[in-house]
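Worked example (supplementary).
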Amino acid sequence: MSLQEHRLLIDGELCEAEGGATYENLNPATGQVIGVAPDASAGDLDRAIGAARAAFDNTDWSTNAEFRARCLRQLQEAFESHSDEIREMTVAEVGCPVMLTHGAQLDVPVSGLGYYADTVDSYEWETDMGEAKPFGIRSRRTIRREAVGVVGAITPWNFPHQINLAKVGPALGAGCTIVLKAAPDTPWAANVLGRLAATETDIPAGVLNTITSADKLIGATLCTDPRVDLVSFTGSTGTGRKVMEAAAQSIKKTFLELGGKSAYIVLDDADATIAAMGVAFQIMSHSGQGCAITTRMLVPRERHDEMVDAVVAMINGIGWGDPNDPANFAGPLISKVQQDRVLGYIDTAVAEGATVALGGKAGALEGDLAGGFFVEPTVLTGVDQDSTVAQEEIFGPVLAVISHDGDDDAVAIANNSQFGLSGAVVAGDVERARAVARRVRTGTMGINGGIFYSPDMPFGGYKQSGVGREMGVAGLEEYLEIKSMAEGI
Ligand code: NAD
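After joint prediction of all chains, the assembly is encoded as:
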């Protein structure tokens, strides 16, 4: 039985949106309505911000680290004890293949709550800096880390549990209170989190609040409201720019995880099959709807055709379609809007001179899936490094193959991007691969198939891919202020 939640969490109460307003939640694999979600109003959001402010100002949440760690463990246990129902709900709401819920779509982010509980337990909240005599005055000095305050968290639809929990875990662990504003397309993931927090943990009223709304702009208030101390945003670079501009009015701290156009660099001594396997699984994973997916494949010019043949063969061997089929690695896109957007990019690529070596059309499936928002896995070749599909984020199962003329050229093409989120390099000689990885201006890099994704590894972008780091100790510290104190002695 799939777990759904039709209520918001505000000030410790599971409640309907103002006036009982709801909107329809669609299954992207079928296009069918699967239920409703609360359609929060500006008034609901205002109450949630007020509750988070009061909980921060009037309770000992921010100073009781032991209690916070316990609450995070309770939340982890709550998710784990309902994992089957949440898994089913996630496949229906997100359209992600069930296989991926055993990784980044559910199980790994849930384990991240335990990671943050342990980190809160072991973190050095105060550092003794010993004595010094600045201006001749003997002083005993301490550096203290304190919670930033009220966090406004705004999240996208592509990996809702991963992104919601990668904000809620460290923000609560740091001692902040939070208003989580989820993407309109994936409301249940946030409201189930609210329900579990309210019914199966001791998290006090107001510490965690969830807001879902059909109005995708409702969260803009979180960027301007003076009661919010920090905005933690994950989404597109264009929206991130608006968030930063709005937050600038009150000099709010902003933490941004944005888009990517990451390069998968194949050096001339790489094994074609190994290289093709890595990039094929990336581009197929959740149909390319991941910010860190490597969507530009840079291949040695003299091995171009061999690499294209290898990657096409590899993609053809990976299952896609029904997300409930445990053999599938790719499902639908989240919405008709995204499906049209991705198909539009493929048309643009062809108009700008690229060739479609595989796919290129809407996925035509049968039965219930005929109404789903599928796009065929697509490989574009002869892509110019400055063309639209080499520069803009597509967010679909579309791989752009670009030729390079050696290691220096590959690094230059990889860095020819407004983004700097992720990347990968594959080579026979690992030392060469490491040297290339160090020169790529991105926040994460995989070398010869290595996976950086894990709750204890910081994740984030250089350049217009973001500001700050999520996950790892760095992820906790985004939600902390630093206070330097000195006692005269
Ligand atoms: P989006 O930018 O359209 O929306 C993200 C969130 O912001 C949603 O909750 C939306 O309702 C809200 N929003 C939209 N306009 C707003 C405004 N003016 N003020 C405040 N909030 C606003 O992104 P999306 O389409 O939901 O998600 C896809 C994007 O997210 C891709 O660009 C992807 O790369 C990016 N992403 C980045 C990461 C990362 O960690 N770097 C992770 C996942 C997704």
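Two points are worth noting when inspecting this output. Residues 424 and 450 are 9 Å apart (CA to CA). Residues 262-454 form a domain with the Aldehyde Dehydrogenase; Chain A, domain 2 fold (CATH 3.40.309.10).
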